[in-house]
């Protein structure tokens, strides 16, 4: 199951799926860190980055498909409260670039079931079929067709809160709260077929969006953060709810 939808229903279906699956093992190529290591956090920085890179081709042991691109059936970014008065509906999303992420810092508080990580993704590109109808910067905007949104040098903070649970005598961790904050250096939008294919108006609107990317993205950033939080939470839980905690973090 490599595809998932970021709608309330899709998320629910996923959570159920990850709980009905059987226990699994981390692929042997994944390196592990010892909790007793005085440099445990530095060890995690290296090994998490390494694991993300290895997941580029998927991990059948964990029923994880390739992360490159990551396929998401549906993603909805709600209206902002400022210049973006339009709901962006994306379907057939291909998210490229996640496996190029670098982990910058990591802080684990395992006794409190918490993890904090900072990462940077040089090039994160969302390609999808979109449809939207509303207003941006007071200008009417509508259309449906292919699009891409590119986030350059995006710093991401990940705050994970987990709850341990037992299954067949083994302890696992489920991440119940995965909060993401995103700070891209620049965002580029490209929506094809705006205004039923009126290229002159469409080019103009794309130009306005890109010239004002900061205000436009800033207004809907919370929507992107929420969606990425759900995506990352699901990916992390596919590993953590299936591999016993003691086999991920060694004593
Ligand atoms: C991440 O957290 C650090 C430390 O709290 C903060 O300085 C930084 O601005 C945050 N970055 C993002 C992308 O939210
Ligand atoms: C997750 O944590 C954030 C930050 O602490 C909080 O604002 C949010 O309400 C929490 N969400 C859930 C579902 O517990
Ligand atoms: C981005 O979208 C535009 C408009 O659909 C298209 O012309 C361009 O080829 C796309 N770029 C990539 C890299 O997909």
From TrEMBL:
It holds the Pfam family JHBP. It comes from the Eukaryota. GO terms for cellular component: extracellular space. Residues 1-23 form the signal peptide. Keywords: Biological rhythms, Signal. InterPro entries: Haemolymph_juvenile_hormone-bd, To_sf. GO terms for biological process: circadian rhythm. PANTHER family: CIRCADIAN CLOCK-CONTROLLED PROTEIN DAYWAKE-RELATED, PROTEIN TAKEOUT-LIKE PROTEIN. Belongs to the TO family. This is Protein takeout. It comes from Zophobas morio.
